[in-house]
Each structure stands twice: as structure tokens, then as C-alpha cells.
Amino acid sequence: MVSSANLHYYANSLFKYLSLNLFMISMLELRHLHMLKALVESGNLSRAAQRLHLTQSAISHQVKQIEDHYGVLVFERKTQPLRLTATGQRLHVLAETVLAQVAEAERDIARIVEGQAGRLRVAVECHTCFEWLMPAMDIFREHWSEIELDLVSGFHADPLALLREDRADLVVVSEHRKHGANGVVYHPLFGFEIIGIVSRLHRLAQKEYLTPQDFTDETLVTYPVPEEMLDVIRIFLKPHGVEPKRRTAELTVAILQLVASRRGISAMPSWAVQGYLRTGYVQGLRLGKEGLFGELYAVTHGEAAKTAYMQDFLETVRAVSFNTLPGLIPLSPA
Hints:
Layout: H1 4-27, H2 30-42, H3 45-52, H4 56-70, E1 75-76, E2 83-84, H5 86-114, E3 119-124, H6 130-143, E4 148-151, H7 159-164, E5 170-174, E6 184-198, E7 209-210, E8 219-222, H8 231-237, E9 245-248, H9 252-260, E10 266-269, H10 274-278, E11 283-287, E12 292-301, H11 308-324
Parallel strand pairs: 3-4, 3-5, 7-11, 8-9
Antiparallel strand pairs: 1-2, 5-12, 6-10, 6-11, 6-12
Helix pairs in contact: 2-3, 2-5, 3-4, 6-11
């Protein structure tokens, strides 16, 4: 027979135990988990802050909250890239698990509320987009197997026309097209650096960076697209009156082969050529002292942007891109 005193003791102990554990559970919020995930994927405070659209001090404050609560460091100080402690690693595993479960639950709720039918037709204007778009589409199909997902075939010089004509539900465009369109919503994907590509044996290979004048007597090898769609011409060369000869090729590898054999020079997103730069097949150089940068946006109709599967597709594209492509720059909401 348990005495009333013992019952009171056990009840009081249980209350303290539950209170302590509930406090420990409630201390960690989704914002903390998003922050930890962004820190690991970005590698430092600055890039994580950019990605989450927060200040570095706000990120530091969240880290300090966790460290003060548990009485242990989350990551080792003054390491590049950032290195997690054992506690930080465990919390990162928790973040990955919980955030994935939350996302799955939200998708399930959206299916209940919105129904399960839908379609998503995707069109792109950039030749190099497929490197990150295809893996994102594969993941999306796992999340939304009931949504009819298609890639609109062919290259489209005016992908916004596909939206107007109801031949696409989402198009990927570069920054310079984001002005002057009505009835559509622009969703920032990421920014990136465009670099010059030359042969390792080219006379320009030893330069610190390329100037517009360096292109004067060169052949510029590009994809077969109009000049106004090439940032290197539109932003970097034309304002300085430089109009080099052009040669075109459909495939990235074909362009790089022409460059490697010194039959021209090129300019591409840095993430699209990292493998070739690492092996020394070609040489990459900054365009101008400060560099040349581009941006990519997804464009949808206003109503389509509100659907859960469209929002999840956009988040999947961003996550896959930042996890797999080096040197991306987070963009502020449009």
C-alpha cells in the first residue's frame, strides 16, 4: 500500500520532471531549427543570415539562446567553414528530422484542403538551368506524386509568353526580365557570379580579371540565344562599346571544348563550370574587378502562387540549388 505522503512525493517528482522536459521541448522553436539547418548548409553566419533574411546579430542571438539553455557550445568558434560540436551535430539531426516531418504534414493538410488534382508545367530560358532543375523535379515528384509535372520542351526566348498563353504554369527567367509584366508574381531563386572562361594557354589566363576591352579581338562562344539575353553582352560589353565576334554551340561541353582549344572565350555561371575548373580543363576569371552577377527568378500567375504544391516546388528548387551548387547568393523577396 502506497502512503499518501509517498503519493504526494511521486506526484510532485513527476510534475517537476514533466515541467522540466516540457520546458526543454518548448525552448526549441522551428525558427531555431531553420537557423541550424541554414548554418550547416551555408557554412557561416553571414551566408546563413542572407539566406534567412535576418541580420547576423539575430542569428548569433538564436545560437546564444540555445547555448545558454543547454550550457554547451553549438559550434566551434573561429572555424571556416563552420564546424559543429557534438551537441550541434545532434541538434542538426533533430532539425533535419523535424523540419522534414513538418513539411510532410503541411503537404498532407494542403491535399485535404485543396484537393489532390493539379498540374505544373515548367519552362526555362537558360541552358544551364537543367543541372539543378531536374534533381528538384525528382524530389518534388516524391512529395506530390498526384501532381502532373511536365517540362515544357525546347528553348524559349520569351518564356513569359507561355504563361500568358497558358502553355506553362511556371517559368524561370533572369533578373533583367522582371520589370514590366502584369498579373504575374516573381519568386527569387538565387543569385550567382558569371565568370569569364579562357584556355589555360590563352594570353589572358594570367590576368587577375578580365575587362571589356579584353574581348575586343576575341571570339565570344555562347549558347545560340539573342544578345539581349546574355548578361555578358548586355551588361558587361555593350555599355563599353565592345562587340566581339560570336560563335554558338548548343551544349556546355561543346562551348568549353572550343574554349580549351583556343578557338574563343566564353562567360558562364560559375556553378555551371566548377568541375571543369577543378580539373584544369579551362581557366575561370572574374569579369571586371568587382565581378559580374546574375539572378534567377521563377514566375507564376498570382493565383497559382498560392497553391501549396507551387510553394513547395519553389522551396524544393531553392533547397536543392543551395545544397548542390557552389557560390550561390540568397536573394531578398521580390
